[in-house]
Every structure is written in C-alpha cells, then in structure tokens.
Amino acid sequence: MSYKNILLEQPEAGIYLLTVNRPKALNALNSATLDEIGAAAELITRDSTARVALVTGTGDKAFVAGADIAEMQNFTQEEGAAFSARGSRAFARLEAVPVPVIALVNGYCLGGGCELALACDWIIATDRAVFGQPEVTLGVCAGFGATQRLPRKIGPSRALELLTTGRQVKAEEALSIGLASAVVPADELMQKGLEAARSVASKGPVAVRCSKEAVRRGADMELAAGLALESELFGRCCASADQKEGMAAFLQKRRANFSGK
Length: 261
Ligand code: CAA
Prior knowledge:
The protein is an alpha/beta fold. It has helices at about 30-45, 70, 75-95, 110-120, 145-155, 155-165, 170-175, 190-200, 205-220, 225-240, 240-250, and strands at about 5-10, 15-20, 50-55, 60-65, 100-105, 110, 120-125, 130, 170, 180-185.
C-alpha cells in the first residue's frame, strides 16, 4: 500500500517509524489518515522481524492536533458514529501490534492526537508538548478512545477533569500524572526515541512480545486469570531458542545473540 498522509520508514533493522504527515493541518486525522495508520499497524504486525515501532508527527509544532475538524463539521449522527468507529478500529490495530509502540510527542497532542498517543504503549514527550482532550470545546465527547484509555492510564477523576474541561496539560504535568513516561529536550526527541527503540530491539524478541501480550491481554482480566496467562507465556519463552541463548550468554559472561525464535 502507498501512503499519502503518513510516512512509514525503517530507520534501523527491526525499528519502524510511523510519522503522521499532514503538517498544513497540524497532522490532524482525517478518515484517510486513520485508515493508513491502521494499514501500517497491520504491516508491522505481519513483519516477524519487527522489534519495536515509533509513532510521531511531522514538524516541531504538533504531534497530532486532533481529528480533522473540517471533515467532522457537518457530520450526521450516523456519520459521526462511523467516524468514531473508524478511528477506534485504527487505534485498536495499533494497540494490537505485538511489539512495543512508543509515541514521540513533539508538540500539540490534542483530541484524537492524544488518543493516538494513548493507543501506543508509552509516551516520550518533549518539554514543549501539550496534551489535552478539547473535544467538549467543540461540542463533542472524545471519539477515538480517550473516554476508555485515559481513565485506565491516569485514573477516572483526572481523566474526567481533562475530558470535561478540555484543560491543556504541559509536559511536566503529563509526566507527573503518568500520561508521559519521559520528558526530553525538543531537539533530542528522535535520538531519545531511537535509544529507547534500540534498547527494546536488543532484548529477547520472544520475551518482549510475550511481555506486551501479558500486559495488554491481562489488563482486561481478573488477577488470577492474568497470572495464569503470565505463566503460560513464561512457559512459551522457556520453549524458545532466545531463552536458551539469553541464559547461556549470562552464564558464559557474554552478550546474548538473539534469533527471535
Ligand atoms: N482539524 C483540522 N485542521 C486543524 C486542526 C484540526 N484538529 N488543528 C489545526 N488545524 C489547522 C488549522 O485550521 C490551520 O489551518 P489553516 O492554516 O488552513 O487555517 C492550521 O492547522 C494551523 O492551525 P492554527 O492556525 O490553529 O495554529 P495555532 O498555532 O494558532 O493553534 C492549536 C494550534 C492550538 C493546536 C489549534 O490549531 C487548535 O486548537 N486545533 C484544534 C485542536 C482540537 O480541538 N482538537 C480536537 C479535535 S476533535 C477530536 O479530536 C475528536 C475525536 O476525538 C474524534
């Protein structure tokens, strides 16, 4: 598939970089962009050599400034519901990518942009990043997952405060409430993102995938069921060549050379 609204690159082996690329609209998400994000997520999912993915936006002003307001303006009830479902589908595909997906937030991260970041596994933000769910200012509630993912991430009270006031949150506050995992200087974002990606990519690929599966599937389970899932996945790791190599390397005091098998 060729993309018009995103860039999908592999800056290094095993590392994908997805960039939302509509700088004239501050990378706002229209239907075509949502579909391309979903398609890119499928491509990464199918690539057994993928180790990690980074998601960002073009330019230094915005990660993504939300869903495309020009497209939404005259929506009927049915069109609104369909657009929301379309975004949810795309972000569910991104969340289901079996390797870690890291959002690199380089500016405005509002509405659907914040929801895109929430569908990633963690967020590295620049000191200039601004987060928020301003949908109520426009007369709509959030439509790409924030009513569900934001409370799971920062708790229902904080989420409701942001969802019902539309208040913008700067990087340091985002860090303190657990929305962002790290804040870095703006000119170091890609370097820090690549460092995080390399760190993941250097670990046992089977173990990394099992870790994500356990956390993601376990989030919707009772504790006992989640622990049983973890045991099953731990067993799966022990059946892998990666586990034999990782533990042999430790005992032989050398670096592991993982095959991802
Ligand atoms: N949709 C469509 N176009 C957008 C956009 C969006 N979400 N955000 C910005 N743009 C466009 C602007 O219309 C403008 O286009 P023109 O140059 O053609 O006029 C261009 O991007 C630059 O934007 P501004 O001139 O507004 O830039 P600024 O620096 O003055 O302000 C901003 C930046 C504070 C981010 C402001 O653009 C803004 O408030 N954007 C909207 C943020 C928002 O409300 N997002 C939520 C959308 S609703 C949603 O996401 C629903 C959902 O969950 C499904």
